[in-house]
Design goal:
alpha+beta; 19% helix
Length: 160
C-alpha cells in the first residue's frame, strides 16, 4: 500500500510539474533582476492568441477504469503511450472549467469508491490524485481552450 500511495503522489507531482506557465528570473546586472515569461499570457479566453480551439476527438479509450465517472460530454483528445503497460496517460477535453473539474472529482469519484487526495485548484490549473484498490491515478486540468467552459485534462491511470 505504501508503494501505491507513493506512486500516486509521485505521478501527480510529475503531472503538476509538466507545462507550468511559470516565469523565469535571470540576473541582468549586479543587483538588477529581470523576469521573462516562458510562454504567452497564461489567461486564455476569447480573442486571446494563446488559447486553443477545441480539438477533434480521438478514438475512445479502452483502458479507463470501470466506475471512474467523467463529466458528460468529455472526450479523448490524445492517448499517450507509456513504457509500462500498467500505466496509461490521456489528454481529455472536458466541458467544465478547471475549478469545476476538481469539484466533480471531489463529489463524484468518492461515490464510486475512489479515495481522492491532494485535490486543489489554483488560478491557472487544478489537480488531484485518486485511488481504489489496486487502481490509482492523477489528473491536471488547465483552462487552455478559447471556450472558457472547457478544460484540458491530463489523466494518468495505473494499476499495481
Amino acid at each position: 500500500m505504501r508503494v501505491v500511495t507513493a506512486l500516486v503522489f509521485v505521478g501527480t507531482g510529475l503531472l503538476a510539474g509538466c507545462g507550468d506557465r511559470a516565469d523565469t528570473t535571470s540576473q541582468a546586472a549586479p543587483g538588477l533582476r529581470t523576469t521573462t515569461p516562458l510562454s504567452p499570457s497564461p489567461t486564455p479566453g476569447a480573442g486571446d492568441v494563446s488559447c486553443l480551439p477545441l480539438p477533434e476527438p480521438a478514438p475512445p479509450l479502452d483502458w479507463l477504469p470501470d466506475g471512474l465517472p467523467l463529466p458528460e460530454g468529455t472526450y479523448p483528445v490524445q492517448d499517450t503511450p507509456t513504457s509500462d503497460e500498467r500505466v496509461h496517460i490521456a489528454v481529455l477535453a472536458v466541458p467544465l472549467s478547471h475549478a469545476n473539474v476538481v469539484g466533480f472529482a471531489a463529489q463524484e469519484w468518492p461515490r464510486h469508491g475512489w479515495a481522492t487526495a491532494r485535490v486543489e485548484t489554483e488560478l491557472f490549473d487544478a489537480e488531484g490524485a485518486f485511488i481504489r484498490g489496486s487502481e490509482w491515478g492523477g489528473f491536471r486540468a488547465r483552462p487552455v481552450y478559447c471556450d472558457p467552459t472547457w478544460s484540458e485534462v491530463v489523466l494518468s491511470v495505473g494499476t499495481s
